[in-house]
Specification:
single chain, mainly alpha
């Protein structure tokens, strides 16, 4: 068989196949890119920005604001005069009771001492008779 005669083909054939696949993908992508560029060059007569036509100024009932002519409002109040926003869940009125320490008898946290291993049981010897 050919693989037995040329063992290096078993190593290099996957690389050759990968190279051919990459070349095919590259040429396909380049062809798609060139077709898209050609379509973009053909439609140069249409602008890429769409302009919305507005009617003349005398026909408009609502003019957009002119920011250079707006009236300025007064300055905001000082920070010390600003009230807090009401809370959704207000805190209870009054001061909570003071903290008091409580000492509870707790169980010892030390582990119990290990139990001694069981002693081996003495087994009496039996005499076996071969009668």
């Amino acid at each position: 068989m050919a693989i037995d005669m040329f063992p290096f083909l078993e190593i290099f054939m996957p690389f050759v196949g990968l190279g051919i696949t990459i070349l095919c993908c590259t040429s396909l992508c380049k062809a798609c890119h060139n077709a898209q560029e050609e379509m973009r060059r053909e439609r140069t007569d249409t602008p890429s920005i769409f302009v919305i036509p507005f009617p003349p100024a005398e026909d408009r009932t609502h003019n957009p604001p002119r920011y250079s002519m707006t009236d300025f409002s007064s300055l905001p109040p000082p920070y010390a005069e600003v009230e807090r926003k009401p809370e959704l869940f207000p805190h209870p009125e009054g001061v909570p009771p003071p903290y008091t320490e409580v000492s509870l008898p707790l169980a010892s946290t030390a582990p119990p001492p290990p139990t001694p291993p069981p002693l081996p049981r003495a087994t009496p010897f039996r005499r076996m008779s071969y009668a």
